[in-house]
Amino acid sequence: MLRDNPEVDRLRQLAQWLDRHAAECLARVDAWVVSSLPVPTGLLARVWPDPAWQGALRDLVVLGDDPAEPGFLRDVTDAGDLRVVNLDGETVRLSPASATLPHPVRLPDLADLREFADELDVTQRIEQLHRGTWGKPTDLRDRDTTVTDFRGTTVPNRLAARAATLGFRVSGSQVTCPVWEAGRTVEAALRFDEDYWDSEATLGTLSWPLVDGPTLRLIKVGPVAWSEGMRMATALSGAVTGTGRKA
Q1: Is 126 a domain residue?
Q2: What is the pLDDT averaged over residues 141-152?
Q3: Which of 46, 227, 230, 236 lies 20 to 30 A from 155 at CA?
């Protein structure tokens, strides 16, 4: 039978590897967006010829040496130059030593970029411009360390499977999302009851502990960590997202 042919099996294994590779590229670029850390343009030049990397990177908003001039990434040359479309609709070449793929809460022109992306019919493989974002309330109390908005919410489907599908980690009785911000790793942590493997789970409080460190007071949580924690909790609870869509 054809399915028993060794060549067919090799092709099947190759297809599976390509799928895993594409998923790994998307996950890595998503991590770059969340961290907003500078990425060496020499590295971008090395990975750009790979269709999986190119698909993950193309049309993301990038910043070069001038943080006030964002553009949509369209090409990377062998020398590491970036070809981007700026907000004037012009294709320009940037030659920075590194480039940043900023988290949307760090984009002051986010509304303009979203509108321009729609005009250009831009499709991003990574949620950047249309990533749900949440601003930190201004009336937080100084000593508070937890958000209770999601406490008591019942999740009917298997929470662990849903969390894994969305790219979050499950450890013990909490779902976590690590965020590198301000030179340290913060883990947004959403607690839940212990029966999540069987049928349904009840969500608890949301907090932001440092990795191997204390839990931060809410007023000390950075804007990216706050937004990503709220995004995680909203997605798992099935509430309305930061872009107005149901999770």
Answers
A1: no
A2: 95
A3: 227
